[in-house]
Amino acid sequence: MSAVGRVSEARAGWAMSSPALAAIILFFVLPAVASLFLSFTDFDIYALADIGNLRFVGFQNYERLIGNPLFWKAVTNTLLFVGFGVPFIVALSLFAAMLVNSRWLKWSPVWRVALFAPYVTTLVATAVVWRYLLHTRYGLVNYLLSLFGIAPIDWLGDPNASLPAILIFVGWKTFGYNMIIFLAALQTVPRELDEAARIDGANWFTRLRHVTLPAIAPTVLLVSVLTVAGMFQLFAEPYVMTQGGPAQSTVTILYFMYEEGFKWWNLGSGAAVAFLLFLCILAVTLVQLRLARRSGAI
Amino acid sequence: MSLRRWSVTLLAAFVALVTIAPLLWMLSVSFMARGEASAFPPPLLPSDPSLDNYRILFGSFGIGRFLLNSLLISTLATALALLFTIPAGYAFAKLRFKGRDATFRLLVAALVVPGQIGMLPLFLELKAMGLVNSYAGALVPWLAGIFGIFLVRQYCLSIPDEMLEAARIDGASEGQILRRIVLPILTPIIVTLALFVFLGSWNDFMWPLIILADQDLYTLPVALAAMSRQHVQDNELMMAGAVVTTLPVLILFLALQRFYLTGLLTGSVKG
């Protein structure tokens, strides 16, 4: 190609990518970096009114957070969501994917779409629906349990039940997304391998353990990384269903950040929470990647 | 074999029914009379189905306004996101320019940073720009769609270079090549991306909650959350509100699910 052509191609390249790049820098990169700086200041309602009131306070926000029991409650709750939610949701999605992928299944696309439907619904609307489903006296969930002789559970009013209740909702809402990813991976597993194991007399569970799971190990990792990130970002669920209660049992890190920032207008302290949240997600993801590498999954 | 076939299908049908039961239940209760759903055992179907709840929602609650806000914001978000990400995705795939690969690597790395990290500074930034409490403020995060660029680039990589070279030799400008040759090829991925952004912005809650203060500007999810805090007891009304909020996106998804599900795989599995 001529030199002129190359120059015009390069010019077009920058012209076409720069609007998006400018938006990304202005509305994504800059705020993310600014979050770190903001976390070292005492930005509050006074600074919001007059920037002259802003002071640099070093690590004070972080020190105060470490001494704040509600912050630790939020961290503990979020880690509980991750610890219980990730295995639960990954198992649920894998089960659904294997079911939909079964070669004995008729009308598979119909079931696939039905199972995926909750994922595309509006979170706030379904949270409202589930708050009602989980109602202690009139809720459908307790009614179904009563058929098995189980006494009514105060799902959203009992600090011991609120976290599982939200997990059930989140699992229902998100498993379809992971299911689609698992489904794509399962379709790459050679049927002959599974068939050979079956002829050798391996039962369903043995085949899952020794044929299917090793073949889709990288996908299991991908799905768990995505689910961990999702669990760290729970906000609307507790906001709509429990408002963080009862007894702060559903305050998540992001919910805490929202209240710190936009309810109390402690933006400096809120930014410190945001930065710690980012470090948490990054750390968990790196650990998962390392474990996967050691076990030979990727 | 036939028995196995039926038992697997029956199991799948059962799981699917349990999964969509909350949505069917929401629809059913929305047609019930006030207070009818607060009974034990919960009634499955309305004894005397009526549209009263919807009448109240659109009448005294003015939900039409929020529906309009949501439609406006999601449509604009979709149009703007396409306008920004399609040319960029194409450029990163097919146009050779200095620093292209390094920039793209940085973008991919940035995908691991959750958007909420910068929410507080972004709020301050938009406040300085005078965009807090405006539609423009609600739209801003959708302009910076790294995932969209990534999706478009993946798809563009499959366009043969010879086709673009031939157009250049014929004297077409780079802009003309994008408009006349690349855009038609990109149609499926444009539909996919548009659907992603539309559903994403329609369902989004945290950012509109932060940036929109005036009730007149509320999107459906924000309005519904506010309503549900004031009307905890009005189950039938809340279910109707949930229907108005979810039904549009559910229908859109069902109509275009082929594109959506393929796009999900291009975006996640290869990434």
Round the mean pLDDT of chain B to the nearest integer and report it: 92
What portion of residues of chain B is helical? over 70%
Seen as an oligomer or otherwise, the chain set is heterodimer
Strand proportion of chain B, as a percent range, falls in under 5%
pLDDT < 50 runs, ≥5 residues of chain A? none
Based on helices, strands and strand pairing, what is the structural class of chain B?
Answer: mainly alpha
**Broad shape of chain A:** globular
Query: Radius of gyration of chain A over alpha carbons?
Result: 24 Å
Q: Tell me how many strands of chain A there are.
A: 0
Helix-strand category of chain A: mainly alpha
Number of extended strands of chain B: 0
* Uncertain parts of chain B: none
Order of helices and strands of chain A: HHHHHHHHHHHHHH
Indicate the radius of gyration of chain B in whole angstroms.
23 Å
Number of helices of chain A: 14
The most extensive interface, with participating residues per chain, is: A-B, 100 and 100 residues
> Strand share of the residues of chain A?
under 5%
User: What is the distance, rounded to the nearest whole angstrom, between the alpha carbons of the first and last residues of chain B?
Assistant: 39 Å
State the helical fraction of chain A: over 70%
What is the tally of helical segments of chain B? 12
Major sheet of chain B: size, sense and barrel closure?
A: none
Description:
The complex is a heterodimer of chains A (298) and B (271). By secondary structure, chain A is mainly alpha-helical. Chain A has helices at residues 3-38, 45-49, 60-66, 69-101, 108-120, 123-133, 140-147, 159-186, 191-199, 204-215, 217-232, 236-241, 253-263, 267-294. Chain A is built from 14 helices and no strands. In chain A, helix 4 (69-101) packs across helix 13 (253-263). The longest helix of chain A is centred in the N-terminal third of the chain and has 36 residues, at 3-38. The two termini of chain A are 41 Å apart. The model of chain A has no long low-confidence stretch (mean pLDDT 92). Chain B has helices at 2-30, 52-58, 63-94, 100-110, 119-128, 135-143, 146-156, 161-169, 174-203, 206-211, 220-230, 235-268. Chain B is mainly alpha-helical and 271 residues long. In chain B, helix 3 (63-94) crosses helix 7, helix 7 packs across helix 9 (174-203) and helix 9 runs antiparallel to helix 12. Chains A and B meet through helix 1, helix 4, helix 5, helix 6 and helix 8 of A and helix 1, helix 3, helix 4, helix 5 and helix 6 of B.
